[in-house]
Amino acid sequence: MSDSPYELTTRCCIAGGGPAGMMLGYLLARAGVDVVVLEKWPDFLRDFRGDTIHPSTLEVLRALGLLDDFLALKPDRAEMLGGVIGGLRVTVADFTHLPVHCRFIALIPQWDFLDFLASEARRYPAFHLRMETEATALIEENGRTAGVKANSRDGPLTIRAELVVGADGRHSTMRAQAGFAVKNIGAPMDVLWFRLSRNERDPTQPFGTFDRGRILVLIARGDYWQCGFVIPKGGFERVRARGLDAFHSDVANLAPALADRVCEIENFDSVKLLSVAVDRLECWQRDGLLCIGDAAHAMSPIGGVGINLAIQDAVAAANILIPAFRRGRPSLKDLKAVQRRREYPTRATQSLQVFLQNRVIRNVLGGTGMARAPWPVRLLGRFPLLRRIPARIIGLGFRREMPEELNVSNH
Asked: Which residues sit opposite 281 in a β-bridge?
């Protein structure tokens, strides 16, 4: 990488230091491809981001020789997902039978996961992470993308690159700059995230409660619960208008064991709104530019699959781009191959999420569903073998990706 005070030159510039961007940056650098990753914030400390590392991602870490070091961070482990649905307590997904090494979901703050990837990536001279640097515009030359303009803590910066990867999330500047058309699929809900303290008598596995008009998801995180209170789309102001006491009461009714702790929500400033979106690009690329992760497809929080789908994008992209970089410069054909590889699992996952949103979530929030558990849930309660089906979809997804470029130095 050539470097001057105002201009850099690299082979690949990745806009966005989230899971997709960091994993792709790591894999490219590990294979000797010079890469610059841009992260607009000074650190990774964003609360209530995707914190579920699924078996598909854990298998990638194992293949890369990183699993033991990751598990040394002591993430919480969820071997099952369940809850109370229409008054029936049921296990929905059982990961203990998956055909993988790690038969559980690892629960860890996303900033710890990103710090871990950054630390591992820095072992390779080809990896360059620039914090407090935000890509703001694309550089176009001779009909192709040739780099980005960015704002950094040291002032304006130009980065010239053979390939720009937009991994800058669901509000991607790169895809907006490219004028890519976004298909908005929609979501009938938003999520209010907050924390409540957790004690030794509390359960350890994540669970949710579905009842008429209300949904609460609880994820055990060390000494606290990460709580997701699901509301109708755009309904936060109505929640605020009802007042804090009413909100406390709603949470306590859905999680009676935590009723003595709802007062820890001292005001609505401690409640973070996640505006749920489900969308995807019809075209993920043009010559010199590729979008992956949330920049290519925003996922619903159902199943917590977003971070893992993004990482699978990064692995698939690396498998295609590394040989392309070794031949020269990735062609438009190479970039289209990434979309072809990842479009089916993206569409399949979103279709399932939309089905659940429309047939379950919408009815529950509308107060017309879940007086009793629907028959598929009752079947899961009666026949434990069936719990392996949602476990496989959630844990492994519709298409698994494994890194192909493993024969490099230091491993």
From this structure: 182
